[in-house]
Design goal:
Elements (H helix, E strand, L loop, with lengths): L1 E5 L27 H11 L5 E5 L17 H19 L5 E2 L9 H13 L6 E7 L2 H8 L1 H6 L2 E5 L7 H5 L3 E8 L5 H18 L1 E7 L2 E2 L13 E5 L4 E3 L2 H10 L7 E2 L4 E2 L5 E6 L5 E6 L21 E6 L9 E8 L8 E10 L4 E6 L3 E6 L21 E4 L15 E4 L2 E5 L9 E5 L15 E5 L7 E9 L6 E8 L10 E8 L3 E7 L5 E6 L7 E9 L2 E6 L2 E8 L7 E6 L5 E10 L1
Parallel strand pairs: 1-2, 2-3, 3-4, 4-5, 5-6, 6-7, 8-9
Antiparallel strand pairs: 9-10, 11-13, 12-13, 13-14, 14-19, 15-18, 16-17, 16-19, 20-34, 21-24, 22-23, 23-34, 24-33, 25-30, 25-34, 26-27, 26-33, 27-28, 28-29, 30-31, 31-32
Helix pairs in contact: 2-3, 7-8
EC number: 3.2.1.46
Protein name: Galactocerebrosidase
GO molecular function, one term: galactosylceramidase activity
């Protein structure tokens, strides 16, 4: 299954994702990358199940409050529009919908959502709730209407454990977000352990990894916490990390509709096993023997346990007793030489009168299956890793962009989209525009300013030039910046060297995004609704700025931060345009 964010214009860990409805009278079902991602997943597995979940919501939904539940009909309309748009514009059938990622649930909202889905002919879509802890299960036990509305009880990072109330609901239980661990061998060990033991210990029949692919700047929060890494679109470099092959031990030998057998448990000397069937005679068994220190996830704390080498005998009963042989796929995580064996086929194991025995070592994963379709797919050698180009330009002159946002820019507050400036007869027809004009209903501590970062977090010396267009009169403002040191859920604490100009004709140089550390200020003569060119030069411990090619301020001390990204942004949630961005850095 594939779970995607329903973009809500707010920060959701490593950046913002655009909403399909920035404003109440606005609908656009081609923003962002999630539509593309779902279609690519369907190409590879037409049976894959699709899940949508909001992290944030556009501000108009809250009617002035940072809360999506005061007007449940409005929020339901917004979410159901996303589901309908997926079908109408992309022929994507959404299978499950969530409530609000890791935030409070609201029983009335869930019931209104269920009623509306049924009323508009979407009865097949299941509601997952509440993508946090297990507390909703207690509410479901005392509210039969809520219980009827929810199909899946989903918890995040449950540590392979569930609670009694969740079991009493008789609903399917899922770990609807898990893993979130650095994708080396330890991350692979974490993933192997929780995929099995979420069912063995907690009766959870699905485990969803956050995140799918680490495709964001590595110095943002939770760097390389994906199943694989592809964070250099400028070079094309990627790396298929160990967790991908651990995933294959389960996903290559099951499909939606397979069920767990009540034949699972812990091995005598540590480790676990599960068994699944398609109900048509096929059988898949997954065994893992992960040791404690080699399988710690980022959360929650893992209590001590021991695993040692052992001989394990398995007994196949019922119709499976007739199985004569099982295909074998094997992984061994090597923490000494980093020379792990990952997802290798072994000779089939013979089953004699329903019995077979394995000699198991520590930190191993076995898949034994009746299916003969397993493959370790080959992929082309990726291009070599390269740093971000030290001389980078973007004029945004794309008539029909494939995506709504410009490549390599990573929005951290606000949304910066390609824009056709039909009112400008000059050189600025195609621009990049900040389009969020009301603070979203936030999931994390979004900044009060909008910001999009680009480049290399190790850059020290740089010259940044960009044409800017302030649209908001009187109190509007924009900036360009260098040595930007933060983003993601920590964006409010971002420091750097920020060169601001404002519609009232003033400028400021600050050491932070919040404009609390003022390094220089004065008059600039900038006006709104007029194009201006800003240049920021950082060299060593000195910063200087130019306006329209002329020096405006010079040699301002710039000691901290010592390195960071380049960035553009606005004073507040306001329309503003950017064009002809250029950075030279070292």
């Amino acid at each position: 299954m594939l779970k995607v964010e329903i973009g809500g214009d707010g920060q959701s860990t490593d950046g913002t994702e655009p909403s399909h409805m920035h404003y109440e009278n606005d609908e656009n079902y081609f923003r962002g990358y999630e539509w593309w991602l779902m279609k690519e997943a369907k190409k590879r597995n037409p049976n894959i199940k699709l899940i949508g979940l909001p992290w944030t919501f556009p501000g108009w939904i809250g009617r002035g409050e940072n809360w999506p539940y005061d007007y449940p009909d409005v929020t339901v309309y917004y979410v159901v529009s996303w589901i309908s748009g997926a079908k109408q514009y992309h022929d994507l059938d959404i299978d499950y919908i969530g409530i609000w990622n890791e935030r409070s649930f609201n029983s009335k909202y869930i019931k209104v959502l269920r009623h509306t889905l049924d009323r508009v002919g979407l009865k097949n879509i299941g509601i997952i709730a509440a993508d946090g802890n297990w507390n909703i299960s207690r509410a479901m036990l005392v509210d039969p209407y809520l219980n009827d509305a929810v199909q899946i009880v989903g918890a995040h990072y449950p540590g392979t454990k569930t609670v009694g109330a969740a079991l009493l609901t008789k609903k399917k239980l899922w770990s609807s977000e898990d893993y979130s661990t650095f994708n080396d061998e330890v991350g692979a060990g974490c993933w192997a352990r929780v995929m099995n033991q979420n069912y063995v210990n907690g009766n959870m029949s699905a485990t969803i990894a956050w995140n799918l692919v680490a495709s964001y700047y590595e110095k943002l929060p939770f760097g390389r916490n994906g199943l694989m890494t592809a964070q250099e679109p400028w070079s094309g470099h990627y790396k298929v990390e160990p967790p991908i092959w651990i995933t294959a031990h389960t996903t290559q030998f099951t499909q939606p509709g397979w069920t767990y057998l009540q034949a699972d448990g812990h091995l005598k000397k540590g480790g676990s096993y599960v068994a699944l069937t398609d109900g048509l005679g096929n059988l898949t068994i997954i065994i893992e023997t992960m040791t404690h220190n080699h399988s710690e996830c980022i959360r929650p704390r893992l209590l001590p346990f021991s695993v040692s080498s052992q001989k394990a005998t398995f007994y196949l009963k019922g119709t499976f007793s007739k199985v004569k042989a099982l295909q074998v796929w094997y992984s061994k995580l090597d923490f000494e030489s980093a020379n792990s064996t990952l997802f290798q086929p072994l000779s089939p194991i013979e089953v004699f009168e329903g019995t077979f025995t394995l000699n198991l070592d520590v930190d191993e994963v076995y898949t034994l299956t009746t299916l003969k379709t397993g493959q370790k797919y080959m992929y082309r050698e990726p291009p070599p890793s390269q740093p971000f180009p030290s001389n980078y330009k973007d004029d945004f002159n794309i008539r029909n962009p494939a995506f709504s946002e410009a490549p390599n820019f990573a929005d951290q507050t606000g949304v910066f989209e390609y824009f056709v400036n039909t009112s400008d007869p000059g050189d600025h027809v195609y621009t990049l525009r900040q389009v969020v004009i009301q603070r979203p209903i936030t999931w994390s501590s979004d900044a009060d300013q909008t910001i999009s970062i680009i480049g290399d977090s190790n850059w020290v010396n740089m010259i940044i030039t960009c044409d800017i267009y302030i649209e908001r009169p009187h109190d509007g403002g924009v900036f360009i910046a260098g040595r930007v040191d933060n983003g993601g859920i920590y964006v409010r604490r971002t420091k750097g060297i920020f060169f601001w100009v404002f519609a009232d004709g003033t400028y400021r140089v600050t050491g932070d995004l919040a404009r609390k550390v003022v390094l220089m200020k004065g008059l600039a003569g900038v006006r709104d609704r007029t194009w201006h060119t800003l240049t920021l030069a950082l060299k060593g411990s000195s910063a200087s700025g130019w306006l329209n090619g002329y020096p405006l301020w010079e040699n301002v001390p710039a000691f901290k931060p010592s390195n960071g990204w380049a960035a553009i942004g606005t004073r507040s949630f306001e329309f503003a345009q950017f064009d002809n961005f250029h950075v030279e850095a070292s």
